[in-house]
Design a protein that fits this description.
The chain is built from 3 helices and 5 strands; from the N terminus they run H-E-E-E-H-H-E-E. With 122 residues, the protein is α+β, with helices and mostly antiparallel strands. Strands 1-2-3-4-5 form a 5-stranded mixed sheet, with helices on both faces. The protein starts with a helix and ends in a 7-residue tail after the last strand.
Length: 122
């Protein structure tokens, strides 16, 4: 495979993992507000809401959950936190809610592991 082909395959596999994770959260009563929210600080894969909680999710897909988790860097977490603040300012200003930042790891079998609040506080 060429680098371009590998990149396209990875992109589409990542996108499929994001939709799979979105469906996982929807089954638990979450409503998707936005897929792939992009701004100057970076990108957030999923933004969801349930009652008074807004959830920002970074989705990582790899052969194993451990490998997926290892692909989340401190710099990326900082960008996600900044992007979440921008989303709130642009879309939820003046509303009262709790905020949570999760990591959703998808392995090669399609099994999802959610790590609640994995991205908070960096």
């Amino acid at each position: 495979m060429t680098k371009t082909t590998t990149g396209k395959v990875s992109y589409h596999a990542g996108q499929a993992a994001e939709f799979q994770v979105a469906r996982h959260y929807e089954r638990d009563g979450w409503h998707v507000l936005q897929h792939r929210f992009k701004n100057a600080a970076g990108e957030i894969d999923l933004v969801l809401r349930r009652n008074d909680t807004v959830l920002f999710v970074e989705v990582k897909r790899a052969r194993t959950h451990d490998i997926a988790a290892s692909r989340i860097s401190l710099q990326q977490i900082a960008r996600i936190n900044q992007s979440a603040e921008i989303f709130v300012a642009e879309h939820l200003s003046g509303q009262n809610f709790e905020m949570r930042l999760d990591a959703a790891l998808v392995d090669q079998k399609g099994e999802i592991q959610i790590i609640p609040n994995a991205l908070a506080g960096f």
